[in-house]
Amino acid sequence: MGLDLRICHLYPDLLNLYGDRGNIAVLVRRAQWRGIAVEVAEVPVGAPLRAGVHDLFFIGGGEDRQQALAARDLQSGKGDVLREAVEAGAVLLAVCGGYQLMGHVYRPAEGEDLPGVGLLDLTTSHPGKRHPRLIGNIVVRWEPPAPGAPSTLVGFENHGGRTRLGPGARPLGRVVAGGGNNGEDGTEGAVYRHAFGTYLHGPLLPKNPWFADHLIALALRRRHGEVPLAPLDDDLEAAAHQAALRRAR
Amino acid sequence: MVDLRLGASIAAGRLSGALIRTLGLGGATTVPGRVAGALVSDLLPRLGRGLARGSVLVSGTNGKTTTARLLAWICRQAGWACIHNRAGANLPAGITAALLGHSALDGRVRGDLGVFEVDEAALPLVSGALRPRIVVLGNLFRDQLDRYGEIDLVADRWRAALRHLPADGAVIYNADDPLVADVVRPHRCARTFGIADPSLRRGERPEHAADGRYCYRCGVPYAYGAAYLGHLGEYHCPRCGTARPPLDVGAAEVRLGGMAGSTFVLAAGGERAAVTTVLPGLYNVYNVLAAAATALALGIPLATVAAAVREFVPAFGRGERMTIAGRPAYMLLAKNPAGFNEVLRSALAGGRPIVAVIAINDLTADGRDVSWLWDVDFEMLRDRCRLAVVTGVRAHDMAVRLKYAGLPRAAITVEPDEARALRRGVQGLEAGEPLYVLPTYTAMLRLRHILARRGVVRASWED
Are A136 and A244 contacting, i.e. CB atoms less than 8 angstroms apart? Predict the structure, then answer.
């Protein structure tokens, strides 16, 4: 039997603010180029999320109004499914607004708290309009999952909320240029088991294809065990990564 | 009494403009406004009050330059003296500069109607200063999120702008856009335009580059009888019944002819007229509707409007036709997902695989965040683009986007230098084929600068 990958795209029509579907496109094509069959299930607000099915979950970012709709929907069962899936080894990538929702709570400058899924040990609060949003090109230093991959992640960030990690999550990387989680402690993103949260869009995976391959390898492990991924020709992606590095400095 | 300070500020503004043009530094489309405005803080309202027929402000994410230019053209054909910020200088200084160019030193304005395109975010400020008789709202799409912020914030600014309208001030708006309709809803004196041809529907769900999918009152997705372009279409909320408002001015029997332009029947009240335009694509049908609905509201006869539309030539870079190295070329500004999709559809309408130069910059005026490239449906170029030469500051991002859209690697050429990219594009053409040049805003200015030096086009500010 051939290899297959089951991806779940949460709220594709709601949390899709910053080219987020590019992350899905990159995961799908990089798997397909290696002969791996891919299925993408799009799960909107109100639709059920079945437990135990998916190898990889993706959730993107949205505007305040959309994020509140998604937060409410996550509380009605989907959050539990996500938490159990991650405990069982599934992969999760959460970007920007989706990242905030994976924490314990999002505290806006005004109005009521948005409860999070509590899958990542972090909280986010918005310090109010007098504090500038963190907007711009961002470079993060991380430990590359494979030898030969660059030790940088590049992207663009645009968020008002400041995220602080608890002891149960470790940062994805350290900020080289840009704001990161909160603009103060030098951390960016969060990792717990195979769950990754980050403020990097741009989108994230097209210019960091090594990260995409890492996610694919982890996701395959759930049902297929350790599978070596054949190398691909990444000349365009590598050049775009370099161009983004230059742009951020 | 002569106001010396006013006279001095007008003189200073105009002198700065003359200097800039004499020194060959550019078109002086905003500096005179800044110079003069620094001397007299309420210069814009004072100059604006001199317009006997008042002002019309045109705003919207896409199409405001073309719409304002077309409206000014129609008004001139009707015999009015129009003052218009032609070069797309759409912030308060640019509008002040346009008025200064037609002012005597005593502050008297030589013109009877102002037609100004206004940046979405600047609309409250300009509306407060000019107290316009008409505000035209075209559409609201996500654009430059790093600069404007979320689309709801722009909508709120527009709500504030409409509060500045005088009692008899009117709003003319695109009824097919649920976001715009929601902004205008409380306003008493409003007229609508939109598409009245369900055969143009592209499905019952809006395409990916859509923003207003969820009802503002209920939070449930709109149901579409016909989705035309992004989230524009004939929609209603299945829960509260909020629906596309009835059309005062509509386009029926629309025939899209790709780069050759379009024809449609313009229906306004009981009147109908056949309209022909060289402007390509459905998005330009909306622009023509916006300009026509406004001209009609100003009292210009339908026959005059239709005749003027037929003679209209597009603004620089917006479907502009040119000849590069002996080859026909089209330059189509593309600066956000919804606009880019429309430009691609127009370029592909001929049915043959195309050769394109795609120029992507990430300067402030383009938006520094290029993630929007992934919200454009470049997948439609798969098997229909023989060669894509990507250029500009973010050429590499564009190349990666095309690769994942499914273009073969051999069809993608990366050439960050714009002049060389144009050459590579021309070299890739077969006999009789046109070159499609698809730039973001600052890339468009840069390409036109290169082409103006070669005498291919006129400078933007002379256009």
Answer: no
